[in-house]
Design a protein that fits this description.
Length: 81
């Protein structure tokens, strides 16, 4: 499938896909390599649990070691002040 090779950014800009590539590399290393997928339902439930954990519990170095959900909440609290 060539759909995933399409880029929405400028031609020749290697940084267009960097955030997506980083997320997919982490997903592959932390979830896919350690998950036994027996059927589509199990896969979707497991993936949903991983994404929920990734956003609410997993610490991210670019967020000062806070989960994305906490960092986003802090951002909006600062904007409201």
């Amino acid at each position: 499938l060539k759909v995933f090779d399409l880029s929405n950014g400028s031609t020749g800009d290697c940084f267009d896909k960097a955030p997506a590539e980083s997320v997919f590399a982490t997903l592959k290393e932390e979830w896919y390599r350690h998950t036994i997928i027996s059927d589509p339902g199990t896969m979707f439930r497991s993936l949903n649990e991983y994404i929920n954990w990734y956003n609410t519990c997993r610490r991210h170095s670019y967020n000062e070691n806070q989960p994305p959900q906490v960092a986003e909440l802090q951002y909006y609290v600062k904007q409201a002040a």
